[in-house]
Give the backbone structure.
Amino acid sequence: MAAQREVLADKINEKYKYYISVKGIPEDEVDEFTNLHTAYKGVGGNHSGDAKYEYCINHLSVIPVKTKLVIKDE
């Protein structure tokens, strides 16, 4: 469980840094980020991950994401 906690903490930290660099959370990642934090808490995650998650959720805006599906003929 400690190994899982460290992997999840690292993922939260990566996303935290990325979201700060782009000044928001892409809308298609909000639920994923929340689920990641929930899993982190489920394996005994500490205040450090909580603080990064809470900062992002409470201080960064959600960035709209537009996608266009491209289908190539084979």
The radius of gyration is 15 Å.
